[in-house]
Fold this sequence. Notes:
alpha/beta, single chain, 6-stranded parallel sheet, 20 helices, 3-stranded mixed sheet, 12 strands
Amino acid sequence: xxxxxxxxxxxxxxxxxxxxxxxxxxxxxxxxxxxxxxxxxxxxxxxxxxxxxxxxxxxxxxxxxxxxxxxxxxxxxxxxxxxxxxxxxxxxxxxxxxxxxxxxxxxxxxxxxxxxxxxxxxxxxxxxxxxxxxxxxxxxxxxxxxxxxxxxxxxxxxxxxxxxxxxxxxxxxxxxxxxxxxxxxxxxxxxxxxxxxxxxxxxxxxxxxxxxxxxxxxxxxxxxxxxxxxxxxxxxxxxxxxxxxxxxxxxxxxxxxxxxxxxxxxxxxxxxxxxxxxxxxxxxxxxxxxxxxxxxxxxxxxxxxxxxxxxxxxxxxxxxxxxxxxxxxxxxxxxxxxxxxxxxxxxxxxxxxxxxxxxxxxxxxxxxxxxxxxxxxxxxxxxxxxxxxxxxxxxxxxxxxxxxxxxxxxxxxxxxxxxxxxxxxxxxxxxxxxxxxxxxxxxxxxxxxxxxxxxxxxxxxxxx
Length: 464
């Protein structure tokens, strides 16, 4: 059997049925730095930038940075920083090789130097929600930015820093974190005048690439790729039009530039991301390994729809002109895409950081209006229940959520569900001053879920 060639620049001209760069990569200029070179960035922002480069504006080559591990650098450096984006749905697939990545850094000093270079005008970040939890540390992304901005102040070079994480007011939060670390004399004042931190909203389902994905790619593409990315065909990017520098014309590639991102953020977090979390935690308890299995469970699908319709939408200010019902229908259709299997455990990860963004604002709005929110309260209980580590069929539930360790500690000593809820509120900082009447309801709901199982707990909440 003939060994397949490895993806590299010399292979591009030989490829068929794969979209490749239409521009001379040797003429790329480095105009951007990206921090957090994971699969999502490479399937999302990099594709929007690729459309700009294919349009002839070669000022926006990207230097990537991955400081936690050298895996991305080690894999992509041997492929001339090329990789394959495999966009799939039930109707088929499309393969694309972006060419805008020109280097990958795995060293903080090198990253600071790259950001300090006046030729770089835009920095983008995908560091996940928990990357903002330790943003006040000097070695964090915010700390690195603050150090780099010290050098940019010396050269009087403005900068635009664009957060692309699932966080309400992501740019504002990042900007506040960076300003808090601006220790050099006059730096904070200079940053306020010369550095922009636009908010943005991003959306594209991008699960972890599996060995099966790599085998499939080898078969359909005819080459091997050490670091391909698999994603859905849908993609959305909404960006606050607030920059201190020039930038790629991302809107020519399909991005939406707006005055205020907040309504789009709220809609995505409280409709799409919340639905994802609901299906993940309830799906794990039912023994489902993937989101598409969970959304095709009629009971869970009905629960999600009724949660959105009855408890979320009454407290949601959607973007002007948005057809919310059509948006919800598209969410469930996308979640049912079995061509891009998304593991429930991956979606469930870091719930201690995700739920405060996805669930708590609507819960608090409902309580403030004097309205119990039994379905949302059950969703919170489902998260607690999964932390016990067992599905209803006895199989193990395992996912990564370091922030939930205080709850796991309480679970080792407390068996009573109502006592557990009170202890979580009293002994951890995970819940922001939940009212006592709500805690009592949540405790009873958790007891019902524990004692009777998911279906029995869901039944009284499902209208027929």
